[in-house]
């Protein structure tokens, strides 16, 4: 083995240098990282069967839709379906997630309304019956004050979101906005 | 323990040139050192202000006995030139270019003269370098708060300042340094000089290629036929767009860390550490192998800033792998630093200067392990866009650059000012303040960053996001943000103590500095190579012996060390070849960026709004890049595609989500909501920490400059069709502004917004990410029209 602490004849402004061998573990890890990199690159970049972030995302999407909606199947926007969803705790919970990520900026966390309408009172501007809520979510309303969400949420998601919004009616928000629009008859009873 | 080479073995070769007498220029070192510490204090102060700004909005309403003790600070969230988006670039630029920059210049000017046994080649260039650099710093300090920015992180400074940087760096600093090498009286170049060479040539290359941009004023004069307004002289756009711009930016950004904050500081360490410890450097061989592997491998690592983005995957993979391979080359520097202190630990215990070095080098080791770890894609998918990255860079900047600079400052002060250090107690106090400050800072933000990253991706058992409300995840950070404020303040106080100590030491200087005259022979024309060291390989062939003697023992390198030109060319080959391996395919492979027919250029008004977005520094808090990760698309919408950014000069993907991603912001909110939110976000989102922008609703939009903006984009290849005809773009912008302002009124929003800056920003925000869901245009390359964006 090489001599330990061999002091070379180098000298710069009083600084001298040993010529110690580089530590063995240093070489070992360096070579290991190079070897790892070689195999990693070959596997992930030169192997047509390797997954990609996009393919893994698509698989996750399929799995997640299945997890959420497999118990209810494809949903239609009709009164019966919405009433059924209003009685489905799991669907309401999922829809609340959508509501909180997209709707609370205007309608408030508890639906009391900020610059969007109060969703908890009995007055509605663009809704006459239960299945109108879905249409407002889908197409927007009031010259774009309420945006359209059809690009962000698929049909099933909009149906359960409509059910969640309908379920806010009659709750007691902390700071309710004054009613807008006309009073409409109460919803039929939710189906369990 | 050691087979000590005896003193007799030193300098077997005697130079034959005539004996020359010379004096070192320490005046310029004194100036750089003071500039570094003064600007350091400024950078830390601005950092503390930025840290407070992020924690402040909810704290404005804190009440103690009926009074709101922090309410008076509200101006920090409402004043245009003090907003976080402007202050954060000021902080980063001051820390990197003013504090660390001046520190590395002080180190290079002090050590190069001594390692070369030569005064700097030209005092005039030394002074031009010093004053030129300070002028650049002042320009940055004025222009960044005014919102004059290229919108690329750490490359914010506008083109006139960029030109100044190029001249000062290459013509003043570079020429002076290399001429000093040429005139040296020491035959071989010490390892510190290798690192300085790599620094100078690589930073020049990075700076020039990342900052290639097209200035608005030149377009107006030569194409639009318009006299540029004063503000238009300081506006330009990156010649690259979208994916390519992102690649170039992080090739630059990561290598700014490598060649501005790492290599010169390794050089600094190699000079000042053995000096302060009075011990030989641990291993010459290790310095060779870690120098070359560092220089070659570092260049590739940039794309690890863009994992899971629209950057092609092969580039991202290379970025990750070269970062992993970089671990040991980086640690080579740490090993050589720490093992140099073998047998000197009793000195470390007694000497606060060595303490600064030991802790600084330890932070270097931590950051250069953490860097490769964060580059691993699966780790990065959690850490990216969170404060984890911020903690990482502060471990490096405060721990490595900061502590090494302070250690150097305290070692230099008595030598430069020729008076004992004013207070050794304050040096020790500074060490503890700085170390505890960094620890609080990074531990707080590590915790906050990882917590927020986990909250963003958490799903409950029904398959919904557990924390769908973004602001909720921000509120979780508040305690950690206050811990950061405390840690940063401790570090700032330490910096002030350092400045005080330097000033008081300087005040005790002699009436006239004593200038030692040194003596050394000039290099003779002939150098006879000493024979290679004897090999220990006995039982093998001549060939193996030869390899061992010439290569393994570093004899070949000894030859390079006395040929600066050859050495520099090898460095250039290393950095250019490594760069080209990534750059050429990024620009040439068409399939990297599949085009999307429905993606059209921004309308003239949206373009003007985009420049406001850049100028306000929105990219400092908002990303525009949704990664193909389920939790992310659930929160923000469809993931971003490479083809969506082809008209983005510069790209605005961002690197940190202090606020939510905006890649699909278009159409998510009403015009009215956006305007109220800009005026004061807390009208709509009580817990928001975003600054308020009331001035955007008052300041007039300069429609006249829009034609030049469109012309510039057209010159960069954006298909604007007949909108480049004189006045057409302005007409289109006015028409769209009127349409938006009218819609705003029907939404019962603000009136008379049609000529305000906010209307342009609104147009841009409402366009973001919407093209992908539109039908492709009937005829190809249809020019953008005034009604293309926004809500119908």
Detailed description of the structure:
The complex is a heterodimer of chains A (192) and B (792). Chain A is mainly alpha-helical. Chain A has helices at residues 24-45, 53-69, 79-86, 89-102, 104-107, 132-139, 155-168, and strands spanning 7-12, 15-18, 123-124, 182-183. Chain A has a two-stranded antiparallel ribbon. In chain A, helix 3 (79-86) crosses helix 7. The longest helix of chain A has 22 residues, at 24-45. Among the domains of chain B are: 25-42 and 75-239, Up-down Bundle (Cytochrome C Oxidase, Chain A), CATH 1.20.210.10; 521-592, no CATH class; 604-773, Orthogonal Bundle (Cytochrome Bc1 Complex, Chain D, domain 2), CATH 1.10.760. In chain B, helix 1 packs antiparallel against helix 15, helix 6 packs across helix 25 (706-715) and helix 13 (352-375) runs antiparallel to helix 15 (387-417). At the A-B interface, strand 1, strand 2, helix 1, helix 2 and helix 4 of A face helix 2, helix 8, helix 9, helix 10 and helix 11 of B.
